[in-house]
Amino acid sequence: MSKVLRINMEDLSHKWQNVKPAHKTYAGRAFTSTILSEEVDPTCHPLREQNKIVISPGLLAGTLAPSSGRLSVGAKSPLTGGIKEANAGGLTGTRLGNLGVRGIIIEGAPKNSKDWYSILVGKDKCEILKTNQYAGIGLYDLIGKVWKDHPTKPGIIGCGVAGQRLLENAGVFGNNIENSDPGRYAGRGGLGAVFGSKRIVAVISDGKGGSRPEAKDQEKFDEARKTFVKSLNAHAVTGKLKDDKGEPYGGLKNYGTNILLNILSEAGGLPTRGFRSGRFDKAAKISGEAVHDLVDKTKAKFGDKAEGKYAHACHPGCVMACSNIVPYEETGKQHVSPLEYETAWSLGANLGIGILHDVAELNRLCNDIGLDTIEAGNTIAMFMEAGIIPFGDGPKAIALLKKAYDEDSVEGRLVSSGAQTAGKTLGVTRIPSVKGQALPAYDPRPIKGIGVTYATSTMGADHTAGYTIAAEILGIKGKVTDPRDLKKAELSQAFQATTAYIDSTGYCLFIAFCILDDDDGFNAMKTTVDSFLGEDIDVTSYGKDVLKKEREFNKKAGFTEADDRLPEFFKTEPLPPHNVVFDVPDEELDAVFKGF
Amino acid sequence: MSKVLRINMEDLSHKWQNVKPAHKTYAGRAFTSTILSEEVDPTCHPLREQNKIVISPGLLAGTLAPSSGRLSVGAKSPLTGGIKEANAGGLTGTRLGNLGVRGIIIEGAPKNSKDWYSILVGKDKCEILKTNQYAGIGLYDLIGKVWKDHPTKPGIIGCGVAGQRLLENAGVFGNNIENSDPGRYAGRGGLGAVFGSKRIVAVISDGKGGSRPEAKDQEKFDEARKTFVKSLNAHAVTGKLKDDKGEPYGGLKNYGTNILLNILSEAGGLPTRGFRSGRFDKAAKISGEAVHDLVDKTKAKFGDKAEGKYAHACHPGCVMACSNIVPYEETGKQHVSPLEYETAWSLGANLGIGILHDVAELNRLCNDIGLDTIEAGNTIAMFMEAGIIPFGDGPKAIALLKKAYDEDSVEGRLVSSGAQTAGKTLGVTRIPSVKGQALPAYDPRPIKGIGVTYATSTMGADHTAGYTIAAEILGIKGKVTDPRDLKKAELSQAFQATTAYIDSTGYCLFIAFCILDDDDGFNAMKTTVDSFLGEDIDVTSYGKDVLKKEREFNKKAGFTEADDRLPEFFKTEPLPPHNVVFDVPDEELDAVFKGF
Predict the structure, then answer these.
(1) Which helix (H) or strand (E) holds A91?
(2) How many Å lie between the alpha carbon of B131 and the closest alpha carbon of chain A?
(3) A426 lies within 8 A of chain B by CB
(4) Average pLDDT along chain A
(5) What is the pLDDT confidence band of residue A361, given thresholds at 50, 70 and 90?
(6) What are the pLDDT digits (tens) for B498-525?
(7) Which of A113, A564, B163, B477 is exposed most, by the fewest CB atoms within 10 A?
(8) A residues 563-592 near B, CB within 8 Å?
């Protein structure tokens, strides 16, 4: 029986509650967005006592369903001013699933406290610990300390110095399965700053004494999850590392998400040097292929001592294993884990930086400081756009980002504050943000559908909210939807609704590559959810219900159709090499949620 | 016959147009807000080519009506994202009135230009001059250069380095009547940055060859204006310097607007040290009385060489003469002109600085750099709130503000970007802004009506938009409306509508002190307007019509009721010494514009 843990940070108390009957099918994003819409005043200040943090493992977290251990974190976002759900892998989803915790709701804030706290969650127990020793330090250090203090390899999520200082690009870190890299980010929307506002550095989930959640119809569940594993393993994107002949097979396992870098650059949709071009001449040097080669090279050179890796799982039980560990070329030791496509783009192509080491170092710094990499790259781009540092200069970008450690550095605070704030401060009029959140790694001018998602998502510009790239660039069922077609409202809505469902199940969004192509895989996936709950859940209705709550929250927070728009420069500046602008009419954007 | 000058900065062309028949009664704010609502897309980026600058002298500018030479500047505001009108004295209103220019509309922007331009307006002529020598320098220097290049003492408005760098607290400066102080600011809302975005440093209005505008019924007009002068001279606030016995009489002439500092501190409504107290223990030291004494003292010491002054007119023909020139105590030479109440508050009490010299120096720096003082003081307060510099430290505040000269200084850009952006960057959750614009010098917690105006004004937090202080603190007709009374929607609406009318006539808002008390004065004022136009203008309907257009613009820009609210901390943090919060219900706020 799942429980809800409700924590009050004003008096440092907690209580365990039953899941409300009306919430029984809600987990992950459905749970966080429902609690926020029911309990948080949408007009409240996101970094003061009225906001709440809601943490919820996906429905199937802790089960043997493949790749189902994602964790959702929600709050009113300090970056967008609207509702926010961000999710990540790591250990915490699985741990909380095993502990039978459906969600943690953190309310209030200590009054005038200078102390920092951590929350320790275990089997039927919760302690709120004073842990000033965890504050003010890098997150690699923090994870090391926590794992030393709690030797059961707990899941850890929380905020770094950026969040502790209430800076708006503070992400919520999570720890890797097997090492101290804090690279499992529920990064977007500044939720780390909400942790900071409640004086919480870490939420530590100790799985000891936990057990696997049981499905209502366990037999059906087990059968379905096995079928689903087969489907995932058979797909060219999500499949096995090598084919029967021993050749590289699964795109994600071999090259990770960063397999996209060359593809998008070729397609002319890779935003380069602050969204000035769609093609990056150094794409190959920072691509997934380059990481793959570097791993192989260091393995050959350093043998067992080499720490680099591809086909690395971001959470227990992930069969897609799209993550990686990027090694230092010189030593083979771990540099950063993971280097994702979005990061290679934001801290690489978007800054005109084509040196893998520099990109990895910027990534490592973000992970250590507690920053979302997508937003951080866009923020550094604002400094470049304003002429403070030049495009393409890795060492200067690294030096700028390092200032974020220094509490007294105004530049350090600005570089931690997101692209919108940095751009406005620096007099930039080409700020690639929607609802205050910066754009990810797909230029909306040549790929219209993703632009429709960016504009209309409840989350601000977010590729994961409705990943039309799957249809527009990668091709579902072998058929590519023309990326230049302007009629994309229906496509974006379908992706957004399905995503809201997936984000609630604990499944990683990347199962979409497989289930969109393979009906058996889709049915097996759906059966795992239905048999777990003992209900027949309609994927689209469930997702739409979540989106409706999120839209309603944002409306009360003051969002209107004017917020469902891309920045002006996308409509007036043509993007080379295709020299196109974003010309989807406003009516098409408003059609996405018409009737919602 | 008045004309409209339309300038296109993309191709550097201009044309003269007739005033549209539908616009014939519109001038000042009514003109700027009408043009913006008819011609500017409310969702456009305020600092890109689609925004327009509209400049319009008040209806009676250039006539002999007393204190009627105010100039309105309008655009979509980069600070608020909504419509903006800011007005000021100086020479330009009178010059344009004499030249028969109802308005100047500046459209477009040069493409990829590195050049800076000035617009020279004369009798039936306009030249767009390349004036790179005016850019990148302090505004005292700029005015000196322009007056040297154009020896006819033209009116000058434009932007300083802050505006040239597109920073969001850039005000539009105007020159003083007789010296090179650029202290006549249409300061609020960042309109200086809109000048910068169009690559315009200065608009120079050469009155040579101009003439006094003629009223439709000149006889009636002349009679009315004389009656009005008598009414103004007889009032204790707006009246003569000395009474019949030679004692100080008119509050404004003797002490300027800064007569309010002690009054508000006594009333417990003077926001002190970042809105943490309503009373400032050093109020007397930076008050209007202190300036008066300093002027007298330096006059006694330096005789004719003393440049300090009270009873100083901000524009030709002002009979209230509430302005001043603050001298250096050591030399008697001019330090800054003017030091207004709002500035003494924002750069003094609000920062905990009680040394007149330091406050005057901060004021002078703002004037030279091109910053609105109200917003600048609130911005520096954010640095203090965040612990970057301490409250009360004048020299550190001065050093911080000086960084704004340096284009490469990120701190300098941030201190020029307004309180909202600086506060967010620095992790401050007590940002005193509404619609992105910082609050002026009256704490809304003990004085509810002004809070209602701050929340609901189309302009963001703006005391001049509906100055209920006149009723709540100063007492109209000898009767004070209880400042703690929560029913203030009607009061605020009445003030906002009347203000929109006054802001269109060219009259200074301070005539309100007199016309609210003296019905003869009110009637005479109204008669000047009616006889000038040859129409019977209803004050309230006219004002409401302007407000309706502004509200409609803001609605299309994405504003909702959620934007008509004060920041959360005003509702939760009691203000000493009265220990009250802002408790006006949302329904009362929404009642201000119900039916609009």
Answers:
(1) none
(2) 22
(3) yes
(4) 97
(5) very high
(6) 999 999 999 999 999 999 999 999 999 9
(7) B477
(8) 563, 565, 567-569, 572
Q: What is the largest CA-CA distance in chain B?
A: 64
Q: Would you state the pLDDT for residue A418?
A: 98
Separation of alpha carbons B108 and B105, rounded Å: 10
Read off the pTM: 0.97
* Assembly ipTM: 0.96
Phi/psi of residue A125, nearest 5 degrees? -145, 155
The upper half-sphere exposure of residue B242, i.e. CA atoms within 13 Å in the direction of its Cβ, equals 4
Is residue A451 within 8 Å of A440, Cβ to Cβ?
Answer: no
Contact A568 B426 (CB under 8 A): no
Cross-chain Cβ contact B558/A557 below 8 Å: no
Among B499, B378, B529, residue whose Cα is nearest residue B441: B378
Q: How confident is the model at residue A178 (pLDDT cuts 50, 70, 90)?
A: confident
Over its C-alpha atoms, chain A yields an Rg (Å, rounded) of 22
In the block, residue with structure tokens 């369903």: A65
- Residue A477's pLDDT is 77
Rounded CA-CA distance A586/B292 in Å is 58
| Contact by Cβ (8 Å): A157, A41 | no
With beta carbons less than 8 A apart as the criterion, state whether B268 and B276 touch: no
- Arithmetic mean of pLDDT, A493-503: 98
**What are B463-499's pLDDT values in tens digits?**
999 999 999 999 877 788 999 999 999 999 999 999 9
Q: Give bridge partners of residue B186 from the DSSP assignment.
A: B172
| Residue spans of chain B under pLDDT 50 | none
CB A181 within 8 A of CB A66: no
Cis peptide before A567 (omega within 30 of 0): no
Q: Please determine, for residue A31, whether its predicted confidence score (pLDDT) is greater than 80.
A: yes
Q: Which of residues 83-142 of B touch A (CB under 8 A)?
A: none
CA distance A99 to A79: 32
- Alpha carbon of A563: minimum distance to chain B alpha carbons (Å): 7
Count of CB contacts below 8 A, A vs B? 102
Is residue A185 a contact partner of residue A174, using CB atoms and an 8 Å limit?
A: yes
Which residue is associated with the tokens 């040579």?
B208
What residues contact B59, with CB distance under 8 A and at least 6 apart?
Answer: B25, B27, B28, B504, B505, B506, B529, B532, B533
Determine the residue type at A162.
A
Can you give the pLDDT at residue B180? 80
Chain B residue with minimal CA distance to A406? B388
- Whether A424 sits inside 8 A of B421 (CB atoms) is yes
Query: At a CB cut-off of 8 Å and minimum separation 6, what does B321 contact?
Result: B252, B253, B311, B312, B313, B314
| Partner residue opposite A421 with nearest CB, options B45, B193, B421 | B421
| Beta bridge pairs of residue B575 | B580
Residue matched to tokens 């009256």: B442
